[in-house]
């Protein structure tokens, strides 16, 4: 790069700028996204990765002249593995930014956003839940498209005496391909919750095929998947 200019003059100068610039932006964007949704560990790691990549870009001329030994190669490989493991492709089985854009040719059902419950639906469901047997329940949602509805349902359950509620936004539960709202396991308590939701809201809930003994856990799972078209 010539003195006094920040613009590359050759492909050799341009390639690292474009490559590292793209990676720095992606890491920063993922860090902000995670921070907004309260995912602190992922956010911190993303920002640390962003700073590390930015430092590599700043010191790129020195890095090209440096010949790392085996320990540095091993450390770089570990950082790369961690970055891949925490990426949306691995954690949520999606390409980065697909919760914000519509992919051409993709089914509309996978990008429609669930609406949050209305105030009247919230009040009606809260009143009805007092007659439903309480449970230890996990409310799961993997994308921003279902976050408003899932968090709203979880908030109502949390305010109902006797319910123990866990909210799962990323990882830990494979809900790939789930369309609509699904309850597991198939038992009377889940049926009562299904009836309460359907009687007080415009939502339709499906009971999954699994029974309690096959799940190996005392928890009930309420999964908000893709919104049906």
Fold and architecture overview:
The protein is an alpha/beta fold and 229 residues long. It has two domains: 11-86, no CATH class; 109-224, no CATH class. It has nine helices and five strands, in the order ααααααβαββαβαβ. Strands 2-1-5-3-4 form a five-stranded mixed sheet, with helices on one face. Strand 1, helix 7 (144-158) and strand 2 (164-168) form a beta-alpha-beta unit. Helix 1 runs antiparallel to helix 2 and helix 6 packs antiparallel against helix 8. The longest helix is centred in the first third of the chain and has 26 residues, at 11-36. The radius of gyration is 23 Å and the shape is elongated.
Structural class: alpha/beta
Oligomer: single chain
- Which stretches of 5+ consecutive residues score pLDDT under 50? 97-111
Give me the count of strands: 5
What fraction strand?
A: 5-15%
Secondary structure elements and pairings:
Layout: H1 11-36, H2 40-58, H3 60-65, H4 70-85, H5 88-91, H6 119-129, E1 136-140, H7 144-158, E2 164-168, E3 181-184, H8 188-200, E4 205-207, H9 212-215, E5 220-224
Helix pairs in contact: 1-2, 6-7, 6-8
What is the structure about, briefly put?
The chain has 229 residues and is an alpha/beta fold.
List keywords for this structure.
10% strand, alpha/beta, 229 residues, 50% helix, 2 domains
